[in-house]
Design brief:
- Helix 1 packs parallel to helix 7, helix 3 packs antiparallel against helix 9 and helix 8 packs antiparallel against helix 9.
- This protein is mostly helical.
- The protein contains nine helices and no strands.
- The longest helix is centred in the last third of the chain and has 48 residues.
- It is 69% helix and 0% strand.
């Protein structure tokens, strides 16, 4: 995308954060950067699950997306505290910045497509429960077919959008280490802060993809330099999350998302009873299975809505920031001066 395209604007009102410095020269972080990194450290700690069964759940996904939005806001506050001006950019770096921030929006769009797909699965099961509760033999046969269709729908769906999400994450990872910037301490503080944001974003995006995926995908495994104050807390979080997700795959479970596994278990209990008949299973037991399926399906919908709301919030934060930075850049700068950030 070029600068003249209008609608797509840089996602944060700052200079280019993707010119990553090499970690050779010693640089003491400023007090405001230390505060930023301490906040990021605490966010990683809060995301570390206390129960392995909750490694990926809607509650965790909601908290994870919320934490990224909080870090985005911290970045904007950091700019104000550092009083770092935006200098005239080389056009190629503007395009690179636009391309990278656009990847974040592309991820949101692709992921929300799969949220819509999961909502269709909810509708399928809701109609199935109504057929099960009717007691009509013909509708019971229809319910049997619907349960089977739901299982096939979840397992065999060729989700190209999730594949797109994986590609986006890989491309973002390639931008972590770019040539070092000028020897300006404030600029280095900003670059260091942006590195933390990118690590946080890529890791969380990777977990979000794993939540809805039914095929084993390579999880993000980032090695963070020890100089970052949040290195230890991030490494612990990444180790726990990736380890438990891999354990789920090894155990043979199809789904990593907790709520989706519960749905699948309830469907598996009901399907043989509806398909082959109750046999020795009492009617009250069968009714209990139906009730559990209905409850877990409704809880699944609530979770989907919450994730969509958080994804919409993240999308808006990115778009608003892009607009603010591009508006600032497009102003005519002084020949030898700098442009001040309009927050």
């Amino acid at each position: 995308m070029s600068r003249s395209d209008g609608p797509h604007r840089p996602f944060l009102p700052i200079g280019n954060p993707f010119k990553m410095m090499m970690h050779k020269a010693s640089h003491q972080p400023s007090p405001v950067l230390i505060t930023y990194e301490k906040n990021l450290t605490e966010r990683f700690r809060q995301l570390k699950p206390t129960n392995t069964t909750d490694v990926i759940s809607f509650s965790w996904m909601k908290s994870a997306l919320s934490s990224v939005c909080e870090t985005l806001n911290d970045i904007k506050n950091l700019i104000v505290d550092l009083e770092l001006p935006i200098c005239s950019w080389d056009g190629k770096w503007v395009d690179i910045y636009l391309d990278n921030s656009l990847k974040l929006l592309d991820f949101c769009s692709a992921y929300e497509t799969d949220i819509v797909r999961q909502r269709f699965g909810y509708v399928m099961l809701k109609c199935t429960v109504l057929d099960l509760e009717s007691g009509n033999p013909q509708k019971l046969m229809l319910a049997s077919s619907s349960l089977h269709e739901w299982m096939q729908y979840q397992r065999r769906y060729d989700n190209s959008k999730l594949e797109d999400c994986c590609d986006i994450i890989c491309k973002l990872k390639e931008t972590l280490n770019l040539p070092k910037i000028k020897n300006i301490h404030k600029a280095k503080d900003l670059v260091r802060a942006m590195y933390g944001l990118k690590v946080q974003t890529m890791f969380i995006f990777s977990a979000l993809v794993a939540a809805f995926s039914t095929t084993r995908r390579t999880l993000v495994d980032l090695q963070v330099p020890k100089e970052y104050l949040w290195c230890e807390s991030f490494t612990e979080l990444q180790t726990v999350m990736n380890g438990e997700i891999n354990n789920i795959y090894v155990s043979g479970d199809v789904y990593t998302l907790k709520e989706l596994r519960v749905l699948d278990q309830n469907v598996k209990k009901l399907y043989p009873l509806v398909h082959e008949g109750l046999g020795e299973v009492k009617q009250e037991v069968f009714d209990g299975y139906c009730c559990k399926l209905m409850e877990s399906n409704e809880e699944f919908l609530v979770g989907l809505d919450e994730i969509k709301a958080e994804m919409d919030r993240f999308f808006k934060v990115v778009v608003d920031g892009r607009m603010a930075l591009l508006d600032n850049f497009q102003q005519q700068p002084p020949r030898r001066g700098v442009q001040q950030v309009r927050m």
